[in-house]
Amino acid sequence: MLACSACRNTAPTGDLSLAEKLCEITDTVPGTVGIAFVSDNDTVTVNNGVPYPMMSVFKLHQALAVAKTLADRGHSLDSVIHVCGDEVDPNTWSPVIRQYMPGDFDIAVSKLIKGAIVQSDNNASNLLFSHIAPPTKTDTIVKSIAGSHNFHIGKSEAEMKANPMLSYLNCTSPLSAAVLIRQVFEQPLVKEEFQDSIRQYLSEVTTGHDRLGAAVQDSDIELFGHKTGSGYRNEIGDLMAHNDVGYFRLADGRSYALAVFVRDFRGTEAEASKIIADISKCVYEHFSETNL
Hints:
A six-stranded antiparallel sheet has the order 1-3-2-11-10-9, sandwiched between helices. It has a three-stranded antiparallel sheet with strand order 4-8-7. Strands 5-6 form a two-stranded antiparallel sheet. A hairpin with an 8-residue loop joins strand 9 and strand 10 (about 240-250). The chain is globular, with a radius of gyration of 18 Å. The chain is of the alpha+beta class. It has nine helices and eleven strands. The protein starts with 5 loop residues before the first strand and ends with a helix.
């Protein structure tokens, strides 16, 4: 367990600052929890100096890199690629591509991006890497358009499945992830129509409903978009990663981004999800009660 290391860029408000409230949660967790909250007027981080395995959170970065690559080539999201049957893995999480198995098939890039984000389809992600922008190119592109360098992407889902310990190499700081998803919803990063599609896909994500979104389902949230990531067990049985990165816009027009990464957790996925949900509830309630 890592002792809480928190910082913020404004003075605390109320009896307890948001950072203090978050540390009360993370200090009891059998693992390391990294948090980044970003709003117009405040930035709060907890344990931001640790590299966290992204797992499928990197599919957000991937979507941006694919969009930029297609735009540079003068192609649309509806561009079609031909896939040979031996390019897909029948034994990985793949709810979208599974319907095309076995054999060769043609598929629009937009369907691959949507599958990778909405349902976190691993084959869809692997195909985007092999046909459009490989991991290292994805890393370079996103760093160039987003301005953040505090993340690293170098491995595909296929490579991480073959050697789960490689998952630690696709890593990010919580703040980098929170800033990126906020940029996606609030700043132009890629061609407008491409970015609109990515925003829509993030708002339709079907994974991780028990994480960030669990705390705000009955609230006054006008828009919620997010991307989850779930990890393997390491050699001592710890859950390597359990993550969620989200963007929240309230009915009053205020917004914030929140990234929560749980690393090397000695517990179940349900328990890790509960920690993420508790953090999200804490942030939402604090944000709602203040002018952050």
